[in-house]
Write a structure and sequence with these properties.
By secondary structure, the chain is α+β, with helices and mostly antiparallel strands. It has two domains: 1-130 and 144-163, Ubiquitin Conjugating Enzyme, CATH 3.10.110; 178-307, Ribosomal Protein S5, domain 2 (2-Layer Sandwich), CATH 3.30.230. 41% of the residues lie in helices and 18% in strands. It has ten helices and eleven strands. The strands form two sheets. Strands 5, 6, 7, 8, 9, 10 and 11 form a seven-stranded mixed beta sheet that branches. A hairpin with a 2-residue loop joins strand 7 (194-196) and strand 8. It is flat, with a radius of gyration of 24 Å.
């Protein structure tokens, strides 16, 4: 059916905008291969999805999950859970992939916690064994040094997995410095508005090196009545931590558009955008766009990031402060 082909085409555009090189489409086989959490990650999971001709009007994608580091029973259960998400008439690949991505992260964190606990217990047993041959004894009512060491071994576990993955958020502050707003006002670049099925999308980008500048950019944008009255102003930023290779200060704000901010941050991560904040304003036009809206949000952001040099056309980052600024610069 032509409606199925149109729905598949819209979904394909959205998936490409969100996952970029981590999502491969084979037009001949009408199938996807999605790499999670990313193509170069370790451990790696690969989700294969074959789209029947009657998808999404009648049947859902045929899924196959390959993750050698996970038990087969766990993979079978995950595929069954994702296939149950299909509802005739609605595309579902984005929902399935996002569920799997979050589930894989949860499983990895649980595995890391188990490993950390096992290491702490092993260390505590070693401490207990080394103190077993000592001739000293504790008098009733007194606490031994060994007990304190055991407590330290159990409670001083490694840092959280988010920190290990390079996700670190700076502390929040109140208020926005007027001088910082004045500085950022001349650095914000706004792209051309893009309209799709009566909804309008517009991206705004600025170079940043600190959280105060993120707040200032948002504050400057919201001075515009048009931007302030947008249905959503979705924001994400990513700052390279000075002197800490591979560590980034990063966060996002959905502004009421659930999951949009996380997808926008994911774009910054996979494209390795550094020291930038991007805001995508959406004015809702009365027609529901479904999952396609996430692709439109990310595509709008990607185009301006490429125009301003934060993303090279090959997909990689240009590094620090962006390159040539071909975007449509507006006074704010």
């Amino acid at each position: 059916m032509s409606s199925d082909k149109e729905a598949q085409a819209e979904e394909r555009e959205s998936l490409h905008a969100i996952y970029d090189a981590d999502c491969e489409y084979d037009a001949d086989a009408c199938s996807y291969k999605v790499y999670l959490p990313s193509k170069n990650a370790t451990p790696l999971a690969v989700l294969r999805a074959l789209l029947p001709a009657a998808y999404p009007s009648a049947v859902g994608p045929v899924l196959e999950l390959d993750a050698p580091h996970l038990p087969q029973q766990q993979l079978v259960a995950a595929v069954a859970e994702m296939e149950a998400m299909f509802c005739p008439g609605d595309v579902c690949l984005f929902t399935q992939v996002e569920w799997l991505r979050e589930q894989l992260q949860q499983w990895q964190e649980e595995e890391q916690q188990q490993q950390q606990l096992a290491a702490a217990l092993q260390a505590s047993l070693a401490l207990a064994g080394s103190s077993g041959g000592s001739s000293s004894s504790s008098e009733p009512g007194s606490s031994s040094h060994t007990d304190d060491e055991l407590d330290d071994a159990l409670h001083h576990l490694p840092e959280s997995s988010e920190r290990q993955q390079g996700r670190e958020l700076p502390g929040d502050g109140s208020g926005v410095d007027a001088a910082v707003m004045l500085q950022m006002r001349g650095l914000i670049i706004s792209g051309e508005p893009y309209m799709k099925r009566k909804s309008t999308f517009q991206a705004h980008v600025a170079p940043i090196t600190q959280l105060e500048q993120v707040k200032a950019v948002v504050a400057v944008l919201l001075e515009s009545n048009k931007i302030r009255n947008a249905t959503h102003n979705i924001m994400a930023y990513r700052i390279a931590a000075p002197g800490k290779p591979g560590v980034f200060y990063q966060d996002f704000d959905d502004d009421g558009e659930a999951a949009a901010g996380g997808r926008l941050l994911h774009l910054l991560q996979v494209a390795d955008v550094q020291n930038a904040v991007v805001v995508v304003s959406r004015w809702f036009g009365g027609i529901l766009l479904g999952p396609a809206r996430f692709g439109l949000i990310n595509n709008t952001a990607r185009q301006l990031l490429e125009q301003t040099g934060f993303i090279q056309h090959g997909g990689g980052s240009s590094g620090q402060q962006g390159g040539s600024k071909k975007g449509h610069k507006k006074k704010h």
